[in-house]
Amino acid sequence: MISTPRLKQLLVAASLGLALGTAAARDEPMWVPDRVSVQQHASITQDSLRTAIIRAGARRNWQLLDEAPGELRLKQSRQGKHEATVKVAYDVTGYQLSYANSYNLNADVERQRIHPTYNLWLRNLSGDIASEVTLLTLK
C-alpha cells in the first residue's frame, strides 16, 4: 500500500508530467510561406498591392503596425493573451509573408516551431491576400 505522502508525490509528479507534455505538444513546425508572384496585370501597382494586403488583413482583424516602402508589419491579437506580428514584403511582382515576433505562442525561432494557432492565422492571411489580389485582376 502507498502511503499518503508518497501518493501525493506521485500525483504531483504525474500532474507535472501531463502539464509539461501538453505544453510541449502545443507547438508544430512554423509555416514559412514561399514568395507569391502576382500575375502581371495593368491594375496591379505597388500601391494597389499594398491596399489589397491591408484589406485582406482587416478581414480577420490584423492591425497595421508599421510600414516602410515595400514592407508592412501586421499584428494579430486575441484577447491580449496571444499575439503574432508578421512582415509582408511586397512589390509589383509579388509578396512574401514572414514571422516577425509573437507573444505567448510558444515560438522557438531557432527550431522553427510555434503554436498551431500562428500557422492558422498566417494561412488565413495568405489566402485572404491571394483573394484580394485576384480581385485586383478583375478590375
The computed structural class is alpha+beta
Q: How would you sum up the major sheet? A: 5 strands, antiparallel
Name given to the CATH homologous superfamily: Kinase associated domain 1, KA1
What is the domain total for the residues? 1
Helix content: 40-55%
Total strands:
7
CATH topology annotation = TATA-Binding Protein
List keywords for this structure.
42% helix, alpha+beta, 139 residues, single chain, 3 helices, TATA-Binding Protein, two-stranded antiparallel ribbon
What does this structure look like?
This protein has 139 residues and is of the alpha+beta class. The protein has one domain (27-137): TATA-Binding Protein, CATH 3.30.310. It is 42% helix and 29% strand. It has 3 helices and 7 strands. A 5-stranded antiparallel beta sheet has the order 2-6-5-4-3, covered by helices on one side. The protein has a two-stranded antiparallel ribbon with strand order 1-7. Helix 2 (46-59) crosses helix 3 (116-137). The chain is elongated and about 80 Å long. Residues 1-24 form the signal peptide. Keywords: Signal.
